[in-house]
Amino acid sequence: MLTRRTYVGEHQFNSRSKSKQKKPESEVVVVAVPALIDTKVFDAVQGQLQARNPKIVPPRVVSGPTLLTGICYYAQCGRAMTIRTGKSGRYRYYACSIKARQGETGCAGRAIPMETLDTLVASHIEQRLLQPERLQEILASMLSHRQERLERRREHIAELTKRATEADQRLRRLYDAIESGVADITDPSLKERIDGLKAIRDQAQADIARAQTSLATSGEDAVTPAMVARFADIARKRMRIEGGGYRRVHLRAPDQRVEVGAKEVRIIGSKGDLLRTLAALSGGKTATLGVPGCG
């Protein structure tokens, strides 16, 4: 199911013989059908499957050192770059998946040695991005905006608290008036006022509880310059594997997509994921630095 191209709108007819043997590509007829899955998603899945297939990639590579499978794309066509081998597996490359399947009619494509691209990307992240000053520069505007949102939440909680207090005080005055005989407890309008004030007070108190829970669990105010430096130091140390290679799990926070072009390689990441990773340190989650595992 995960490899069937029918789901991306390309149903392959006459692909196997009566004996279930796979026919040559020249005999396969591709029929256009309604697509159910985005092609980029499909290509990403193929890259993941190939990277984790022990018949193609040794288990020691599946568990970590195959760095960019699933996040590497060729800029010209936007499709995934998957692992290809040469010289009976002695050489390994990231190559455009479209060109590998369709030839140059699908995409001119390109291939780049795996070690070359891995080293280029990892070195840039290690030497340029994973520096405390650079991380603080990247996250400065986001931290500032989040601090502003925290202040607005606190102001909102203060307004709700004032509303709940005022409603409660008015209720107390009404109860005092009833006890002193100034107000008639049988008056229908009095009951409506009491019910209305109770509703205002209770709703404000419920809103306060939700806002305080959100504020307490956000973790956004826990990110400090010291935590940024700590994250950078741990990530640089854990990214490398003794004896060579890299652990891709520790590149996922700063690096979600690598685009290979004709003259440049673009590394694209999410500031939000970086910030959440940093915030995870405040809860003592240092084992993975809050970075998703490769599964």
How many E-type strands? Answer: 8
Percent range for β-strand residues: 5-15%
Query: End-to-end distance, in Å?
Result: 19 Å
Task: Give unreliable regions as ranges.
Answer: 56-65, 284-295
Biggest beta sheet attributes: 3 strands, mixed
Molecular shape: elongated
Give the gist of this structure.
The chain has 295 residues and is mainly α.
Give an account of the 3D structure.
The protein is mainly alpha-helical and 295 residues long. The chain has a domain at 132-222. It is built from eight helices and eight strands, in the order E-E-H-H-E-E-E-H-E-H-H-H-H-E-E-H. Strands 3-7-8 form a three-stranded mixed sheet, with no helix packed on it. The chain has a three-stranded antiparallel sheet with strand order 4-5-6. Strand 7 and strand 8 (265-268) form a beta hairpin. The longest helix is centred in the middle third of the chain and has 48 residues, at 132-179. It is elongated and about 100 Å long. Residues 56-65 and 284-295 have low confidence and may be disordered.
Q: What attributes does this structure have?
A:
3-stranded mixed β-sheet, single chain, elongated, 295 residues, mainly alpha, 3-stranded antiparallel β-sheet
